[in-house]
Write a structure and sequence with these properties.
With 397 residues, the chain is of the alpha+beta class. The chain has ten helices and ten strands. The strands form three sheets. It has a four-stranded mixed sheet with strand order 1-4-5-8. Strands 2-3-7-6 form a four-stranded antiparallel sheet, with no helix packed on it. The protein has a two-stranded antiparallel sheet with strand order 9-10. Helix 6 packs parallel to helix 8. The relative contact order is 0.12.
């Protein structure tokens, strides 16, 4: 069957700098990421060296201020970088999205002194972050989290003392391999107003990781519970005001959902590229199977769904870039793009028939990976609740 090389996505980019950036990302993806993706995912190998390369290339801090080592790129551009990375390997694209999410609290709510002290290493110093919100008993109901942060002896408010953090976080991407964790913990009473954010170093005494979860996909990306056993952090690592943590977390998730949407479209595009290559190269009844209307219409629907998802996440990104509210559109993008990834990858397996069900072709991996995108950073049922609240107001109790 002859190889058919997929054409790169024709992107609308705002500047020549952005076009050069996408070219750089495609080069890294084609040379360093894609060739090893299948083998390393099958082996469950985390590509830490790739994240080092991305950091050295200035790709781990793209949407943040260059004053602290960021790339000064709008979300419109950053998300398309994520899509290109996820197209090559979701472990990498999602990993960059999670790292960016982990930097959000400090970059947007930290003091100038905190940003100057910590952000340069986080954005361009080779460090990798993780985001600790979910817990074993509080997934979608994040406001009910139980991890405690209490002031250590002698640590009064404003004294510059220490906090002790105790509890367990669950479903943490990069759990056990991250260099820093943005942690949401309960410092006050029940409910969302009793939560505070902290920046915890990965080597902190009392911090440990459980063995990684055994997952159906994304095997190269470690997901693990993180245990905090009286982990001491200075008050200088508290982000924002006491009790502001839940608001900080929600703001980060609005942006993070756009990252998931972009990654989903990357996986869907990879599946479509594989399906088109197979359909145009595979012959049955004396002609390529792409000649048969049933398959042609499937490919057309897959491509249309991908374009619609890409347009929606970019529209949400442009709202964010101009400082306008975008939470509803972010939820819509996360919902549509991840559902699209699930549909397109399922159809790609169908296009390849029996071959699609084997590990000799990557579409079965894309299908397994797409499923998790409907779950992470707010399940798609939660996204529907968020959208409905914007339309009809909060639920009555």
């Amino acid at each position: 069957m002859p190889d058919r090389v997929p054409q790169p996505v024709d992107r609308q980019l705002p500047t020549d700098e952005a076009r050069d950036l996408i070219s750089l990302v495609r080069d890294i993806a084609q040379r360093e990421i894609a060739p090893k993706a299948a083998e390393e995912e099958d082996a469950g190998r985390f590509p830490r060296e790739i994240f080092g390369l991305l950091s050295d290339s200035g790709l781990l801090g793209l949407p943040y201020d260059s004053e602290y080592g960021g790339g000064d790129q709008p979300y419109e551009v950053y998300l398309q970088v994520l899509e290109e990375l996820a197209l090559a390997r979701l472990t990498v694209g999602l990993g960059v999205s999670v790292h960016t999410l982990s930097c959000h609290a400090l970059a947007n709510y930290g003091t100038k002194e905190q940003r100057a002290e910590y952000l340069p290493a986080m954005l361009g110093g080779g460090l990798l972050g993780a985001y600790c919100l979910s817990e074993p008993s509080s997934g979608s109901d994040a406001a009910s989290l139980r991890t405690k942060a209490v002031r250590a002896a002698g640590g009064e408010t404003g004294s510059g003392g220490e906090w002790a953090i105790t509890g367990t976080k669950a479903w943490i991407t990069h759990g056990g391999v991250a260099d820093f964790y943005t942690v949401l913990a309960r410092s006050g009473g029940a409910g969302p107003r009793g939560i505070t954010a902290f920046l915890v170093p990965g080597h902190a005494e009392g911090l440990s990781a459980a063995p990684p979860e055994r997952k159906m996909g994304m095997k190269g990306s470690p997901t693990a519970q993180i245990h905090f056993d009286g982990v001491r952090v200075s008050d200088g690592r508290r982000i924002g005001d006491e009790g502001q943590g839940f608001a900080i977390a929600l703001a980060a998730l609005d942006s993070g959902r756009l990252g998931i949407a972009a990654c989903a479209i990357g996986v869907a595009q990879a599946a479509l590229d594989e399906a088109v290559a197979y359909a145009t190269g595979r012959e049955q009844f004396g002609r390529p199977i792409s000649d048969f209307q049933g398959l042609r219409f499937m490919l057309a629907d897959m491509a249309t769904q991908i374009e619609a998802g890409r347009a929606l996440y970019l529209a949400a990104a442009r709202l964010r870039d101009t400082g306008r509210p975008f939470a509803k559109q972010a939820a819509m993008a996360k919902l549509l793009c991840t559902d699209t990834a699930m549909k397109v990858t399922t159809d790609a397996v169908q296009v390849l028939g029996g071959y699609g069900y084997t590990a000799d072709f990557p579409v079965e991996r894309y299908l397994r990976e797409a499923k998790v995108l409907q779950i992470v950073e707010g399940t798609n049922q939660i996204q529907r609740m968020v959208i409905a609240r914007h339309l009809a107001g909060p639920e009555s109790h």
